[in-house]
Amino acid sequence: MRVLITNDDGIESAGLVVLAEVALEAGCEVVVAAPHRQYSGASASLTAQEVDGRLALVDKRPPGLPDGVVSYGVKAAPALIAFVAAYGAFGPRPDLVLSGVNLGANTGRATLHSGTVGAALSAATQGISSLAVSIASADPQHWATARLVTTHAFAWLQEQPVDERVLNVNVPDIPVDQLRGLRPAHLASFGAVQARVREKGKDYVMLTYSGVTARDEPGSDHDLLTRGWATATLLSAPYDDPGETELPSFEGSGDAPVDVDVGSGTVMSSGDDRPSGEITDEEQGGDDSPE
How many CA atoms lie within 13 A of 117 on its CB side? Predict the structure, then answer.
């Protein structure tokens, strides 16, 4: 079984090694392809940096990655990396995609903005089962706990096809002997970050970001995580779901068959300069946006 490891924290993040080692211990063939720098908050963006029409790569490896594991630093958002991997960009098409281990939790509505989850969802839209793993700290001290939980989640994923869905796992940054276990959870109804307009001018809008005050939602991923549980939630890739809602419709005057040339528009942003959404070293300090 071939496994692609990616993330949104960049090619030098220790979380990549945790996922790679779990997959290797399960007897899988592993390839690492991750952004050359941080892409937190990129969601499922398909931004990339191209040079003469070629996706740009850098010669970097995660510190401590086992010898023999092929590694690519890619100047692209994580969702694009997972997307092009499905078409053989980094060797044969992967059977599974593991994304993370993200620095910081991805719970509640904040998952919408997560580049870690976005990579997994991008793979899921290509029919590849995916796992997104996050640890609830910007400076994790207990990687062994993340590794233990990932091992259980990965074993489940290998036995349980999830089709166009993603298994989203969050791990508390506590010692293994304090971990209460792994539980299914629903998404909390709030995001991790809120914003307000601080100032508006002729050519700009200045925003202030801050963490939200968590509400009491028993059984939610945020609630369980704060009480020492690792959480597992299934997320769906985009699909149409009208349910019982009556959607708008009307009958026009045309009644003859017609052939319409449908253009797809721009689906991917690229160029020689820094793509929108990419976070610079200067922008990383003090950033409270979802990871």
Answer: 30
d(CA 56, CA 54): 6
Residue 193 has pLDDT above 60, yes or no: no
C-alpha separations of 3 from 46, 178, 195, 225 in Å: 21, 30, 37, 27
**Residue 180 reports pLDDT greater than 80:** yes
User: How many whole angstroms separate alpha carbon 2 and alpha carbon 15?
Assistant: 19
Global pTM value: 0.81
290 band by pLDDT with thresholds 50, 70 and 90: very low
> Would residue 265 be called left, alpha or beta, if left means φ above 0 and alpha means ψ between -120 and 50 degrees?
left
Say which residue the tokens 């945790």 belong to: 18
**CB neighbour burial string for 87-96, b if at least 16 within 10 angstroms, e if fewer:** eebbeeebeb
Strand partners, 211: 193
Amino acid at 204: Y
* Statement: residue 273 has pLDDT above 70: no
Closest CA to 22 of 96, 76, 88: 96
Amino acid letter at 248?
Answer: P
pLDDT at 40 over 90: no
Contacts 24+ apart (CB under 8 A), 223-229: 223/185, 223/188, 224/183, 224/185, 225/105, 225/107, 225/136, 225/170, 225/172, 226/172, 227/180, 228/172, 228/174, 228/178, 228/179, 228/180, 229/172, 229/179, 229/180, 229/181, 229/182, 229/183, 229/185
pLDDT tens per residue across span 125-161? 999 999 999 999 999 999 999 999 999 999 999 998 7
Nearest to 291 by CA among 9, 80, 6: 9
Is the link from the previous residue into 74 a cis peptide, with omega within 30 of 0? no
CA–CA dist 168, 107 (Å, integer): 9
Residues 6+ apart with CB under 8 A from 252: none
Closest by alpha carbon to 179, among 152, 145, 154, 147?
Answer: 145
